[in-house]
Design a protein that fits this description.
520 residues, mainly alpha, two-stranded antiparallel sheet, 46% helix, elongated
């Protein structure tokens, strides 16, 4: 006979937990959609979600908003970490997955651990010093919002593009590696230890832990009701509930309400009061304690599950296998040989490979120094760029400023009428521009290598500012021994804004004849 499942009543603690879960899921969905949506209207409508994050607010210098979070934390505790931070919700999901199995939940309950204050406040101090001193790589990597944004824009967005039938453009190698390592490290830590990342290496969590220590609302254990079942301690992802002295460390508590929901005696409450005794007045007696103790211990008598191999061996043609392997292995080498031969042939005719004198930053920056200081490398502008011309940098801006967005005009051009990146930037690294302002905002200047130019005129046809003209080649160019064309492109830099349309369409091979140099 099927056993009927008894529904638990909706208590105030359970209602608070349900409300917190709904808010955190909505925030996670909003920020994930913000980084992965292919619709510009949806992205602009969800821009508010990024502008609620603490680190972008700090980079923007929004003192009023930061003061608002300070007041909220002083009143309610670290509700930002439990409900608004997407990385915190991601950790909750990962830690929840193994505990959906009762056996894992019994064998690996959470236990109280002492706060590692030396580590977390050292990390907070290091991030603050690096942010002020210009060593932006440290806050870029450790900011939870930016780290989550890179995971979405680098790892998840290509999957969405593939499913949506869009052209998949992979990000830079360094951004992919950092996003992958970050996801793996956070997931591995949360799998066994819950919110340990929030209370050890997260600078935002460490900063909010200071006012949260004296928050008005906190969790208090009523020892008149507590029966020492330790149910609250075993569900605390922050490991901040100590049953030895019946105290909750408010500096580490992320206000998830799991403890309130799991306590059947109503002994732990989210309140402004404090009501404790030195010794609990109620304790479990009889077989219940033994049952609870034995339930949490592993059962060595459970039979081991043996898996049987059911797959049949597959016969492989040895010659075909070796031939296929040789072809696959030789393909990159043959391609490299062909490219090298083409380069030698071009260099013999005087062609030269062009490199930008300075990297090209997105439009809307006040200055290069201000852009590098404010940008956290979250990847939102990269994810929402319609032409995918933006990509995370590696060392273009120096090794102290990795993952900043940089223009790669071999992949696309900066859309002439697009201001999406400036409208969405949550840190103020890019100021919002109107369409008319974008038309005159200079981010670089095009430069022509006449020895590479074939005089096709595509750059002049596609230039939105009409700054490129095709003229007869001066006779002869120094170092030019080829006979590609008697015409060559010339750029009027006084009207060029550096959109990159010319570089994108240039068909000259193996080296392009036009390139955009960034301005400092």
């Amino acid at each position: 006979m099927k056993r009927l499942r008894r529904h638990r009543p909706v208590t105030p603690g359970r209602a608070l937990r349900l409300g917190r879960v709904i808010i955190s899921v909505v925030m996670l969905a909003a920020i994930t959609l913000l980084f992965t949506t292919l619709n510009v209207r949806i992205a602009l409508a969800l821009g508010w979600a990024a502008k609620l994050q603490v680190m972008p607010l700090a980079m923007t210098g929004a003192l009023t908003s930061l003061a608002g979070w300070l007041v909220i934390t002083l009143i309610f505790g670290r509700v930002y970490c439990s409900s608004v931070c997407p990385m915190g919700t991601l950790q909750d999901i990962v830690s929840r997955i193994p505990r959906m199995r009762r056996q894992w939940k019994r064998r690996h309950p959470y236990h109280f651990s002492e706060a590692n204050n030396k580590l977390r406040y050292f990390v907070l101090l290091a991030v603050a010093v690096c942010a002020v001193g210009g060593l932006a790589v440290v806050p870029t990597v450790l900011d939870p919002y930016s780290a989550f944004g890179r995971i979405c824009s680098t790892l998840l967005l290509p999957v969405v593009e593939l499913i949506g039938g869009k052209e998949v453009v992979l990000s830079s190698g360094i951004a992919f590696a950092i996003a992958g390592v970050t996801l793996a490290a956070v997931a591995a830590a949360a799998w066994r230890n819950g919110r340990i990342v929030c209370n050890t290496v997260c600078p935002v969590g460490s900063a909010l832990s200071i006012p949260a220590r004296w928050s008005l609302y906190h969790f208090d254990i009523d020892t008149d009701r507590c029966i020492n079942c330790r149910a609250c301690e075993h569900v605390c992802k922050a490991k901040c509930i100590s049953m030895a002295d019946h105290m909750v460390d408010s500096s580490r508590c992320v206000v998830c309400f799991d403890c309130v929901d799991t306590c059947h005696e109503g002994a732990i409450r989210y309140t402004t009061r404090r009501k404790r005794l030195s010794i609990p007045m109620m304790q479990r007696v009889g077989g219940e304690v033994g049952t609870a103790t034995n339930a949490s211990a592993p059962n060595p008598t459970l039979p081991a599950v043996k898996e049987k191999a059911t797959g049949q061996p597959v016969k492989i043609d040895r010659r075909r296998f070796l031939a296929t392997g040789l072809l696959v292995a030789a393909a990159p080498a043959l391609s490299a040989i062909a490219d090298t031969a083409a380069r030698f042939e071009a260099e013999e005719s005087g062609a030269r490979k062009l490199r930008p004198t300075h990297p090209v930053a997105p439009p809307g920056r006040r200055s290069m120094a201000d852009f590098l200081e404010r940008c956290t490398g979250c990847g939102l502008c990269v994810a929402q760029c319609p032409t995918r011309v933006l990509r995370p940098s590696s060392t273009q801006f120096g090794w102290l400023h990795p993952l900043r967005p940089v223009m790669d005009y071999d992949r696309g051009m900066c859309e002439f009428n697009c201001t999406r990146c400036t409208d969405l930037c949550p840190t103020g690294a890019l100021t919002p521009l109107t369409i008319d302002e974008k038309h005159i905002f200079i981010i670089g200047h095009a430069r022509v290598e006449t020895a590479n130019c074939i005089g096709c005129g595509l750059c002049a046809e596609n230039c939105p500012k009409q700054t490129i003209r095709i003229k007869r080649r001066p006779a002869p160019d120094a170092g030019y021994t080829g006979s590609r064309s008697e015409y060559v492109a010339l750029v009027d830099t006084s009207n060029c804004i550096g959109c990159g349309a010319c570089q994108e369409v240039c068909p000259a091979t193996p080296y392009k004849a036009i390139i955009v140099d960034g301005i400092i």
